[in-house]
Design brief:
This protein is of the alpha/beta class. The protein is 42% helix and 24% strand.
Length: 189
């Protein structure tokens, strides 16, 4: 029986992975579907429950950990959990599509270990940590402390880039999107 594929797109925060994921979903609406992650953080103003994330209380998230409902989960930032529900992958596979996971680096490594034959991973690399910091600052969503934490975490996450199937340096977003499209075309062909 054919194993269901999983496409993982990972990167440090601010490297452009979510924009690249959105581009790929637009290019392949019949083949790909966004895997909605679960999180305990509060929704941002433009986010929708069940579309951007499943927003769970810490207690419910921890119960789902106990129930082995996640294929991967992490406490990404202090007190903020993120994870991929097994039921979300199954929901997408039932439609005949391939789930696209937009997840952090540690979660991506867990998925690769759990699904070594069927997962394909793309690491989106910023041109530099300094450029990444500028991108995060321009969002206007970070406090000085959270910005510093994200930049430090990004520097650490970059050390794992060689553990993924493909690396795309996001110097220019349009080029990075086209590079990702070429890779995905080969995977889903």
């Amino acid at each position: 029986m054919r194993q269901n594929k999983i496409i993982i797109i990972t990167a440090p925060s601010g490297a452009g992975k979510t924009t690249i994921v959105q581009y790929l979903l637009q290019q392949y609406p019949e083949q790909l579907a966004f895997s909605v992650s679960a999180t305990t953080r509060q929704p941002r103003a433009n986010e929708t429950e069940g579309k951007d994330y499943y927003f769970l209380t810490k207690e419910i998230f921890q119960q789902k950990i106990q129930d082995d409902a996640f294929v991967e989960w992490e406490m990404v930032y202090e007190g903020k959990y993120y994870g991929t529900l097994q039921s979300e992958l199954e929901r997408i596979w039932k439609t005949g599509k391939t789930p696209v996971l937009d997840i952090d680096v540690k979660g991506a490594l867990h998925i690769q270990r759990r699904f070594p034959e069927s997962s394909f991973s793309l690491f989106i690399q910023p041109p530099s940590v300094k450029e990444l910091q500028k991108r995060l600052e321009s969002r206007g969503t970070e406090t000085r402390e959270s910005l510093e934490a994200r930049v430090n975490k990004a520097a650490y996450e970059l050390s794992f880039k060689d553990q993924f199937n493909y690396t795309i340096v996001n110097n220019h977003l349009e080029e990075a999107c086209r590079d990702a499209e070429r890779i995905i075309t080969a995977i889903i062909a």
